[in-house]
Amino acid sequence: MWCHSRRNSVSLSAGKASDYGLRLPILRSSPEDQILYQTERYNEDTFGYDIPIREEGDYILVMKYAEVYFAQSQQKVFDVRLNGHVVVKDLDIFERVGHSTAHDEIVPFSIKRGKLSVQGEVSTFNGKLTAEFVKGYYDNPKVCALYVMKGTLEDVPKLQPHPGLEKHEEEEEEEEESEGGEEGGKKKVPVGSKYRVQSGPRTPNPYAADNSSLMFPILVAFGVFIPTLFCLCRL
Fold first, then answer.
1. 28 vs 196, which has greater pLDDT?
2. How distant, in Å, are the alpha carbons of 42, 47, 92, 98, 103 from that of 14?
3. Which DSSP category does 27 fall into?
4. How many whole angstroms separate alpha carbon 70 and alpha carbon 40?
5. Distances (CA, A) of 198 to 65, 142, 183, 193
6. What is the pLDDT of residues 98-125, one digit of tens each?
7. Contacts from 87-90 at CB under 8 Å and sequence distance 24+?
8. How far is 122 from 231, CA to CA, in rounded Å?
């Protein structure tokens, strides 16, 4: 099935068919969905599809991809536009998930009071949703399959787990947690105050000691001075 949607149909505006991926199994994809990722539409220039939408509400555009030809990143990179709004920038399928691996781009949008709202941008909606795959500097844009459904992100079926991606995400989360723990253990210094780095124990305050120890030498000197002065006077 090239595309399916709830009470909507898709009209092709361009795109050439390719079944090059039929020779490869697609990771992360269920057996019944393999064909969606093994076949694709592409073009040497920007191409797209018009999807009529007659009802207002919250919708999800799901675009399915798998890189079945290139074996490194920066070989196929392109943008995706939705009614002129760039909703996916510099899509590099291999860089996202690797070779012959399923990848879904999911774009929520809403149509209310004749307006299309997507990713914080708003434009006039005339009943037709246009998904365009924009030619870039690296090879040709493509899409394996797409559909539009009415609902929210929670309603979209999820792909099977990707061990490599999950491990990378877990490592990033652990790094963020460790950095957060270190920052949480640091003492905050008020803005405008000077933070002094101290080395070794604090030096004792000499004026905090008992002053009686300083009086003893003075008394001794005074005791010696009086007899000496008395003797000098008698002479």
1. 28
2. 8, 5, 21, 27, 22
3. B
4. 14
5. 58, 62, 20, 15
6. 999 999 999 999 999 999 999 999 999 9
7. 87/61, 87/118, 87/119, 88/63, 90/136
8. 110
**Sheet with 47-52, side-by-side order of all strands:** 11-12, 47-52, 128-138, 77-82, 85-91
- Is residue 27 a contact partner of residue 100, using CB atoms and an 8 Å limit? yes
- 181 Cα distance to chain centroid: 20
Question: Can you give the pLDDT at residue 229?
Answer: 54
Q: How does pLDDT run across 36-86, given as a tens digit for each residue?
A: 999 999 999 999 999 999 999 999 999 999 999 999 999 999 999 999 999
CA 76/CA 34 separation, integer angstroms: 21
Give 121 or 197, the one with higher predicted confidence: 121
- Joined together, the tokens standing for residue 144 give 């394996």
Closest CA to 148 of 50, 4, 15: 4
9 token code pair:
């149909």
59 close to 109: Cβ distance less than 8 angstroms: yes
Which DSSP state fits 223? H
